[in-house]
């Protein structure tokens, strides 16, 4: 099982054979057992939306070309895709909704263990949302911002766009999206609308369904944007910090607690309390006290804001437990493999679920609420300390692999670094270097790991190629995890892989920002929801240049996309105007019409389009070509 085809991560390749020897099943085993995977599902032509079915279209043209109700491949594929987008949007919507509700409670003066960490940012947001914060008490501002955000979940007038979509995009983009009828007025209603129009006997027009999908993707964007910004208000704006990534961050002599999932509301408190309860862990024999590490996007959240090391990304989450050194894994929402609870049988690890809608059979459930967050966190840490006492030393195998990672590049942090070069006009050095070609363009890497490809391989291969071509790179989610684990978020990586002109620019900015060397090769922008940080920068550049987003030499890539959230993110990236690469063949190719719309026709509508390329080297060539096409369009 363990070879370079599973992963390029040395920690994974160290632990997988050990898991296999011990008879422990991982996602890689289950992937093998699942083969051959369903061809109908892969093409997107299996319809399961009513109980007359399931129906499936014969892709070779010999068997049925219509489902029992008469829906053809185009309708079925479009409906399946739109439902994936709706699910992705729902995930981010719930995240944002939760954070906005918490801000409202704080604004209303409820006693919660959170406070407004970034007053200035909150006031800026209030201004952006046209709430006239001047002279108002900060709690009042918090309340008004929370209510304006919650309005994006409750507005009934469909002619009024969501605040967080309208106020964060270029005016011309907003106009275009309104004109196309894809601008959401209400995040929840847009998700419900997709579920309705894809119900049996509703929308059968594939193109119309896809437009509904674009609207759903923009609802996703809206939920993500407010989620990131309000999280910054509560927990702090990330700033560059040096930390480490990969399973070597676990410590033999510490109580290791992994925080996993997406929502920082609990993990932030766990981190706070771990400092206070450190002595308790030491008393239990853990010489190094408590060691918090992150997995997936909760990991990215605490890594960006606190420098907490990242243990691993999505695909290798089970292997964190296979080290035998994780005493508790605390999970909140999204991207948590249910298999973690089964692994608990082989090790002493406490697997703790915390959210009412995210339970796993076999796990310990400690229900989280904002009011009891402190008590919850204390109980979790106590469980971890108790588990540490039960840890079987003979089963501990911490791989000796970790890489330094400089993370924390929020839009504010990037602007702060640029302002050291030009205090009056921080964007100028970036724009000048794009115009003169020192920076060929910008690529945003997003998305997950997927067993269909060698873990992390697509990310690192494409990044090295783009670096050589002087492309400035940003990353989020498990893509950022991949870059961190493989040492590409370091100054050394810039020295080793960046083309000459990119290296020069990164060095000038890095030196000016006091990093004593260049900026890292790939800038870590945060978790999945934080993709909007990149939009924030792109919109600022577009506004300054007086062009829309679809004119910028900016591309996106999800080389190992997997989750419904990634489908939603990719779709809004396209809708905002970006050429967007997928390294995994999307489950739509059973409909030539849908495939053509997404990869070609959509370009005429919104400027962005999907590029599918599974070979990472060829993908890099295509991304560079897309950037050059944009440069030509701008005449630079
Ligand atoms: Fe999940 Fe965000 Fe994907 Fe990773 S990248 S597998 S969605 S954790 Ni966002």
Secondary structure layout plus pairing:
Elements: H1 10-21, H2 27-34, H3 39-43, E1 46-47, E2 55-56, H4 73-107, H5 119-128, H6 138-151, H7 163-166, H8 171-180, H9 187-197, H10 206-235, E3 241-245, E4 255-261, H11 264-276, H12 278-283, E5 290-295, H13 296-306, E6 310-312, H14 317-322, E7 326-331, H15 339-343, E8 350-353, E9 364-365, H16 373-390, E10 403-407, H17 411-421, H18 427-435, E11 441-445, H19 457-468, E12 471-476, H20 477-485, H21 491-497, H22 500-512, E13 522-526, H23 531-545, E14 554-558, H24 564-575, E15 579-582, H25 592-606, E16 609-612, H26 616-634
Parallel strand pairs: 4-5, 4-7, 5-6, 7-8, 8-9, 11-12, 11-14, 12-13, 14-15, 15-16
Antiparallel strand pairs: 1-2, 3-10
Helix pairs in contact: 4-6, 4-9, 4-10, 4-24, 5-6, 5-10, 9-10, 10-24, 11-16, 17-18, 17-22, 19-26
Bound molecules: FE(4)-NI(1)-S(4) cluster.
Please give a handful of descriptors for the protein shown:
6-stranded parallel beta sheet, 26 helices, Substrate Binding Domain Of Dnak, Chain:A, Domain 2, alpha/beta, 3 domains, binds FE(4)-NI(1)-S(4) cluster, Rossmann fold, 636 residues
Structure description:
The chain is α/β, with parallel strands linked by helices and 636 residues long. The chain folds into 3 domains: 73-235, Substrate Binding Domain Of Dnak, Chain:A, Domain 2 (Up-down Bundle); 247-395, 3-Layer(aba) Sandwich (Rossmann fold); 405-634, Rossmann fold (3-Layer(aba) Sandwich). Helix content is 50%, strand content 11%. The strands form 4 sheets. The chain has a 6-stranded parallel sheet. Helix 9 runs antiparallel to helix 10 (206-235). The longest helix has 35 residues, at 73-107. Bound molecules: FE(4)-NI(1)-S(4) cluster (XCC). FE(4)-NI(1)-S(4) cluster (XCC) is lined by residues 262, 296-297, 314, 335, 447-448, 477-478, 527-528, 562-563, 565-566.
